[in-house]
Every structure is written in structure tokens, then in C-alpha cells.
Amino acid sequence: MAIPRPTISRLCKLYSLLEEMNERGQLTLSSNDIGKRLGVGSHNIRKDLTYLGETGTTGSGYDIKTLKEQISRCLGFDRKRKACIVGLDKTGTAILSNDMFFSKNFDIVAGFDSNINRLETLKIDIPLYPTYDIPVVIRRERIELALLTLSGETAQIVTEKLIDGGIKGIVNFSPVVLSSSDSSVYISNVDIINEFRFLSALFTLDRGEA
Amino acid sequence: MAIPRPTISRLCKLYSLLEEMNERGQLTLSSNDIGKRLGVGSHNIRKDLTYLGETGTTGSGYDIKTLKEQISRCLGFDRKRKACIVGLDKTGTAILSNDMFFSKNFDIVAGFDSNINRLETLKIDIPLYPTYDIPVVIRRERIELALLTLSGETAQIVTEKLIDGGIKGIVNFSPVVLSSSDSSVYISNVDIINEFRFLSALFTLDRGEA
DNA sequence: GGATAATTGTAAAAAAAATCACAAAATAAT
DNA sequence: ATTATTTTGTGATTTTTTTTACAATTATCC
Q1: Upper half-sphere CA count for residue B87 (Cβ side, 13 Å)
Q2: Which residues contact B28 (CB under 8 A, 6 or more apart)?
Q3: CB B107 within 8 A of CB A111
Q4: How far, in Å, is the CA of B37 from the C1' of nucleotide C4?
């Protein structure tokens, strides 16, 4: 039985929540607690969890560690994945310095930038390459994911190179809406202006839900 | 007739696309073109556009400028909105320097950080305040949107302060999943690790669509 | 100017997702 | 030990969203 996309999305968020609660030393969580924290109904959560096979314990809820492992195995979070970053301007390097990719099972093994001079001055501990090397490096290193932090103009060209190299997923932080020329490559567009607009639209058309 | 949430989301993306095409000097777009660029079916686009009232011209598609204005008016993009940023570390300042908020009708009128010393050394041309001033400033300046670029620990506390001040929408870049204690406040969680995981899940469970 | 092609708008059908309702099971309380 | 409470799992129902199908309209080509 195929897992619906909205369910996948919620399970990802739930996974983050479980990590957080686990670090805080909590042991169990009920569908009610989860629903409240994630802003959805408890039925919805229980239904989502049926896609994982049997899980909870009636009366006392879900065991955090067990559930975490089940989601991990089911959605493939248990495997380390190689990723790269394209565009090493301020935003790119800032993200690189902050995020704990490695500890979350993502390994940034390459950085790309079209500005060759910049590559030399950066003090970053990952191998850096010029953009035209993208297809070769992606293929050689078997990189699965890419993070795009560059200005809109070059985004589509870079995307083609990434797809050419056999990338599997792209998180696009550039302000253009990218679409995949290859339907087996998934793209997630993250644009702050777009997020602001979406929120504006929601409270402009004010609809009563969360 | 209430506009469905997925439709709102697509209309926001479409709006970005229209801006892009308009800048390139293009005049019209067909539902087919739009669908391809956005990775959805043309029917879906036409259906979405019915929520705006009559729009396209049979035979030649949609006039980009007209459509842009219609979406703008309908979703409230025609009004300038005040926003603030909370957390002025590397990521925060990087976003602030890159993004063209003002030209897209968002006006960043305040920055907040808990580190008072940092506030003094930053050379940013927006007024800066310590975090405890959030509720007062939000209320006084009538700020509608907030961008959260801070580490997970403080995110929930800051969120409460923002809600307390009467914020309407929050874009959360911190690694914790925030949920709103007030259902009239909309929150959009944007976390790179989460995006990576979502994409991993998609290609792990490989489902055939875009 | 008539034929052909492109394109929209929408009613109806289908598919997908969320919600409900409640029995069954485990826990906690007395 | 018995009762009350909590909480899960799931079939049925409802709601929402997408897709289909096609008539109607406009543009384009010869």
C-alpha cells in the first residue's frame, strides 16, 4: 500500500519531533500529544502510523525510540546519504556552518561555485569544484542530494547539470521555481519571499484553521 | 467560495513564475506552459484560476500582466507588509543581505537578537532590538510577519513572544517544528534537514510521479 | 474567408485524504 | 480484583482535491 504524500510529509516532521523528545529524555508520546505539537488531529496521526505496521501500545501511547526507528527504516533515514552544495556565497556558507548535516545522516562531500577565485579564498573543509565539474563529480561520488543556494539566473542551468550527473533530489533556495525535466528527480522549492506570500495569502483570505 | 489551500500554494508559485516571465518580456502564457513549468497538469491550473474569476482568452492563453494583478489583488500581494527578523547570526544576516524583500512588497522594519553585544557590532540598516522587546515592538510597528533564524532552543519562547505581540505569520528556519498556540497565527516550518529527509523518503519509496 | 489548430472553462466523475465513531486493549486508581 | 480512564487501530463516511471530457471560443494558416 503506497504511502500518501501528505503522510510522508507529516512523518518527516514527526521524526524531528521524536528526535527532540528523545533528547529531552521523554519515553512515550500519545497520538494526542503528537497531534497537538504538529497541529493536526490525533486521528490523522494514528492513520499515518498504520502505514508503518503495528506500533503503539493501547493505553500508553507510542514508544519514542521504537517509533523513531520504524519511521527511520521505512523512509530510509537509517542510511547515510551524500549531498553537495551549489553556490558558496554568504547564504551557502552560512548554512554550511550552522547545520549539523553529518550528525543527521547527511554528508556534504562537495561544494560548487562558478567563481573560481572564491573557491580559493574560502576556508571550508569540503572539496570545492567549479560548476562545470558538477556532472562528473556527482557521478563519481554518487551524490544523491543537492542544496542550491545561488541567484536565480543560473539555477536552471545548474539544475540540468545536476540531473545530468544523476542527482536524486534538489532543495532549491534560489528565487526561481524549478521544475524537473526528469520526473524521477524530486525538487523542493524553498523561497522566503514565497513563504511570506503564502502566509500573507492565508491570513488575508482568513480561514479559521491552524 | 473558499480557495483550497493547495490552490493558494500553486497560485503563489505561479505568481513568482509570472514575475519572472514578465521581466523577460513575455506577454502571454497558456495553462499548458504553466503546468509544465510548475510540474502539474494544465487542468489543475485552469481549475485553480477559476477561483480568480474570469481570466484567460480562449485560443491564446493568459495575459501575464493581467493575471499577475488578479492574483496580487486576490491574495493580498498588492499591499506592502511589515516584517521582522529574529536571530542575527550568520544565516540571518546572510538572508538579510541577499533577499530583495522591499522590492517584493515586504519591508523588514526590525531585527531582534538576544545577544546585545552583537546588536552593537552589526552594520545593518534596520533598527535592532533585544529579544525581550519583541512584543512591544511588534505591536507598536504593526509588524505582520516574522522570520526566525535561530537555534532550536529559543525558538518556542520567541514564538510565544511574537504571538503575544500580535504577529500574523511566522517563517521558521530553526530546526524545531513549531506549532501555533493561537490558531489565527500561521507558521511555516522550513528546515533543510527536513527537506533532505522528505526528498530521501520520496526517492526511497520511489513513486513514479514528479 | 473557411478550415484547422490551440486553448479556455466547467460540469461530472474519480481519486485521495481527512474525519468520525467505536470496539478492543492496556493502564491506573480504589 | 474491579472499575474507571486512557489510548490505539480501523472500517465506514465525509470532505476535499484532482482528473476527465468536451463544448465553446479565439487565433492562425492557406
Answers
A1: 25
A2: B60, B61, B62, B63, B64
A3: no
A4: 27
How far apart CA B44 and CA B63 sit, in angstroms, is 18
Q: Which residues pair with B171 in a beta bridge?
A: B147, B188
Check: CB of residue B83 under 8 Å from CB of residue B106: yes
A11, A16, A183 ranked by CB distance to B210: nearest: A183
Amino acid A59 CA to nucleotide D6 C1' distance, rounded Å: 5
Say whether pLDDT at B207 is over 50: no
Could you read off the pLDDT of B78-135 as tens digits, one per residue? Answer: 999 999 999 999 999 999 988 789 999 999 999 999 987 877 777 788 999 999 999 9
Q: Does the CB of B7 sit below 7 A from strand D?
A: yes
Which of B168, B194, B204 is closest, CB to CB, to A76? B204
Which of A13, A198, A205, A206 best probes binding to B when mutated, by most B CB atoms within 10 angstroms? A198
pLDDT per residue over A121-132, tens digit each? 777 889 999 999
Measured CA A147 to C1' D20 distance, in angstroms = 37
User: A134: buried, middle or exposed (CB in 10 Å: 19+, 13-18, 0-12)?
Assistant: buried
Q: What is the DSSP letter of A101?
A: T
Q: Which of B12, B99, B207 to mutate to test the interface with A (most CBs of A within 10 A)?
A: B12
**C-alpha dist (Å) from residue A140 to A108, B13, B90, B115, B189:** 14, 34, 32, 44, 34
Query: CA-to-CA distance for A125 and A69, rounded, in angstroms?
Result: 31
Report in angstroms the alpha-carbon separations of A188 from A101, A150, B175: 17, 15, 17
Terminal Cα distance for chain B, rounded: 29
CB atoms within 10 A of CB B142: 11
**In the 13-52 stretch of chain B, whose C-beta falls under 7 Å of nucleic acid strand D?**
40-41, 43-44, 46-47
